[in-house]
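Quick one, T. Sequence first:
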Amino acid sequence: MCLIFFFVVAQKSDEANIKNIFDTALKNGQSYEMLEYLATKIGARLSGSPGAAAAVEWSRQEMIAHGFDSVWLQPVMVPHWVRGKKEIGRIVNSKKQGTIDVNICALGGSIGTGPAGISAQIVEVKNFEELKQLGQKIVQGKIVFFSRPMDPTLINTFEAYGGASNQRGAGAAEAAKYGAVAAVVRSMGSNIEEYPHTGGMRYADGIPKIPAVAISTAHADLLSSLLKDDKDLRLYIETHSQILEDVLSFNVVGELRGSTNPEEIIVVGGHLDSWDLAQGAHDDGAGCVQAIEVLRIYKQMGYKPKRTIRAVMFMNEENGLRGGTKYAELAKLNKERHLAAIESDRGGFTPRGFTMSATDVVKAKVRSWKPLLEQYGLTDFSMEGGGADIGPLGPQGVSLFGFLPDSQRYFNYHHTEEDTFDKVDKRELELGAASMAALIYLIDTYGL
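Structure tokens:
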């Protein structure tokens, strides 16, 4: 009887505290105002840029202003890549002796073509196997066009993205093996759009570096169509990107010290860097302000966590993951005990649940809290996953969670000029912050 009474009392207390969390976020939230400043006053924040440096200082001052117990910087050396002048793309149609301008952008980490640009015939492939079958005899001296789209039939758009993104990351290195002079990749976008999506790419040791660009989905379709009629079609691309020396940057960390188990740490975070084409509002300004908001909500409620809660603004997720790697390295060096880590890096859309990379016991415990969370739309706890920045903590036995919002619109904006503050809904953003605060409250209260 006593156990039943205790369970009922605890459940009522949890329901009340979680409602207070959501009420605080929705009535007195500050995540939207924080995001407006980060996105519109600072803007693009590519690692090594003045924008990234400004974002570091802004987030440090923001967490100090909210009265967190400790705020500090973690130094980390990051890549420094610059895009340079706007790219030029032009289809040269030999049959009609005309040209068509197309929208392209250099992929992050790519070398530039130089002012003379590159003009060559095009070879279209869907995947690396097709490229291999063509071989050096056909590919040598040409531009390889990787045209595989994201699978539109997959409801999980992140699964569709994962099924297409290897051509962006490794396409240039694979094409260079067979003597290609450049690589063009269909943008990783869900819809047919005029604007291109950038993103990271990597070169391979011992293989020549060639320029790599993304082409908008609309112009990728156009290029494929024209190639069917004219196999001698040529493409001219001109890019001015440069790979510079690594520079010093920082993760930004703020925490509320635990009252009874301060040695146990729960991390909530997002990545502070963004691509250079827009404001980085969804990717990942939303995740950063939601992480700060979690701790701010607790402060406003007067909630004293049992365990130490940290908000971490990770630097350099987009083109190196140096911040996440450095955080995990320091956690191990300092013998810190991290109980859980939660990342928001899927945009500021309507909450659906959480992904989990943890033991079966931990997953079962979290799913047992579903009755407390589902009234707030948090019903999906089925998928594996955590987040790129918190991933390096996994080998230390840390349970990893990823905030899971609705994904249907994310790849309209991801890595494009359209990722701007006006695309973020205030209520959806606040619901996401409250959702993470609710999960962390339960972890803090009951452990894992």
